[in-house]
Amino acid sequence: xxxxxxxxxxxxxxxxxxxxxxxxxxxxxxxxxxxxxxxxxxxxxxxxxxxxxxxxxxxxxxxxxxxxxxxxxxxxxxxxxxxxxxxxxxxxxxxxxxxxxxxxxxxxxxxxxxxxxxxxxxxxxxxxxxxxxxxxxxxxxxxxxxxxxxxxxxxxxxxxxxxxxxxxxxxxxxxxxxxxxxxxxxxxxxxxxxxxxxxxxxxxxxxxxxxxxxxxxxxxxxxxxxxx
Length: 228
Description:
Helices cover about 45% and strands about 10% of the residues. The protein is mainly alpha-helical. Strand 3 and strand 4 (about 65-75) form a beta hairpin.
C-alpha cells in the first residue's frame, strides 16, 4: 500500500497493490454479497467516482467490437457529460444478474440502490476490518476515491496510454492527471522500467516517447468537479 499526504487537508491518498485490491473485494463479498462487490469493483476496475457508481444501471452496459463497455453519465440529471470505460465481462454479468434476479430493480434503475456516501461507508467498513486483521494502519486512510486512484495507476503500470486512460476516466486536465497518477507507480513497475535502460543491462526494446508522454491537448480549463 502506498500513501501520500493531501496537499491542503488532513489524511492521505492511498494506492492499493493487486493483493490489497483482491483482499478488499473479498472482504466486500463477505460483508454484503454481490452488490457490495459490484460497488467496489466499479471503482477499482472501471475508475468510477462514487456517485457515478451509485447511479450505474444495467442499461448502461454496451458492447463494442466484442468487448464490454460501461456508459458513464457524469451528471445523471442533465446528461451533459458522457464517456465510456472498459468493464470486465464478469462484472458486467454480475450487474445483469442483479436485475435478472431482483424484483425491485429494472434495467433503468441503479443496480446498487444506494448513494455515493453509502458506497464510501461500505468501503471504509471493509477497510476497518482489514486493518483489524492485518494491523496495517493504511487501511484506515482508504476512501472510495482511492479505488479510482488505484485504477488509474494500475492502468498506467500495465502499459495503457495516458491519453486513453484520461478518456476512460473522464479527465480533461493533463496536469491534474499527471500530478496525481503518473508519479505514483509501484516498485514493480519502476523495476520493470529500469530494466529497459541499456546502461543498466536492459534488453527490452524502448518504446517511443510518443507512446508514453503525449498529453491531451488542452483547449480550455475545466472545473475541479471533472478533473479529479
